[in-house]
Amino acid sequence: MQAWQVHQLGEPSQVMQLQDVERPVPGEGQVLLRVRAANINFPDVLMCRGHYQVRPPLPFTPGVEICGETEDGRRVLANPALPHGGFAEYAVADAAALLPAPDTLDDAEAAALHIGYQTGWFGLHRRARLEAGETLLVHAAAGGVGSAAVQLGKAAGATVIGVVGGADKVAVARELGCDVVIDRRTQDVIAAVKEATGGRGADVIYDPVGGEAYTQSTKVVAFEGRIVVVGFASGSIPSPALNHALVKNYAILGLHWGLYGTKNPKLIQHCHEQLTELAARGAIKPLVSERVPLGGGAAAVQRVGDGVTTGRVVVVPSLGNGAAA
């Protein structure tokens, strides 16, 4: 089979190599899956660079989220067991963690439903307890993680403010359903949020960016607001001033979705049932901006790492190795 392999760490476009390799052999409790679609996540970029908390042994195949097909023909969502990741024709995954792919989504959309939407659901509902009528601020609202949070926030009855970078992303955020869109490149984010909320600020802030975005969050969070720290796509990890959280009476909530797999896996199943129901009634639908063939995988991962994509970029092996579809 063909698979992207990383033999040394660095930028994805430089270290990912498409090679002919043997199909992975499932271990105890694992199953072999034919990859129907593999969604690109920022952790794939970080793993190539050697900056992620999970460091699979070299060589490894990136790709942490797929829609796959079992030997008996079932479509499932899975997180491949590294080092045999999803940017390949076949991957392996833990049998107990497989989730049924929603019938209302195609392979690429289904592949993008899992990590980003689970993270959004846990962040907004489990951690921040978002309520209908509250204001939700989403940083990087046109990206893969942010777009999921926008849709989930709207589905929950919140007013959603999206922060993006660039006119093209403004259009995407509006299409996703943001009530207010702020272009951080041309607008003062703090002033714009205060204007949009009548000076009150946002009740819940969803931050997958860190750095300057986190600093802005602390200045626009409402009384008894909640800042959900999801990741650090900016590459800068903030050092929060806890006296500021005390004086303004807001909460800082960390979210590591992967921990639920070992700490409380039943919640992941419950969340998937909620997401499947939301997808069935059209309340959420992953925004797949690009479907690329397996041969375009390295370039696509690099684009995600460079922050120039919107929504989700998905590798679809059945497209062959030609141009993106």
Which features would summarize this protein structure in a list?
single chain, 325 residues, alpha/beta, seven-stranded mixed β-sheet, 12 helices
Word description of this protein:
The two termini are 22 Å apart. The chain is an alpha/beta fold. 33% of the residues lie in helices and 24% in strands. The strands form three sheets. Strands 3, 4, 5, 6, 7, 14 and 15 form a seven-stranded mixed sheet that branches. Strands 10-9-8-11-12-13 form a six-stranded parallel sheet, with helices on both faces. The chain has helices at residues 12-15, 42-49, 107-111, 115-127, 144-155, 167-176, 189-196, 212-220, 242-248, 260-263, 265-280, 297-306, and strands at 2-6, 16-20, 30-39, 66-69, 75-78, 90-94, 99-100, 135-139, 159-164, 180-183, 202-207, 221-229, 251-254, 288-292, 312-315.
Order of helices and strands: EHEEHEEEEHHEHEHEHEHEHEHHEHE
Overall shape:
globular
Largest sheet: 7 strands, mixed
Terminal Cα span: 22 Å
Query: What integer value in Å does the Rg equal?
Result: 19 Å
Number of helices: 12
Total number of β-strand segments?
15
Strand content: 15-25%
Mean pLDDT level:
95
What percent of residues adopt helix (DSSP H or I)?
A: 25-40%
Low-pLDDT windows of residues: none
Structural class: alpha/beta
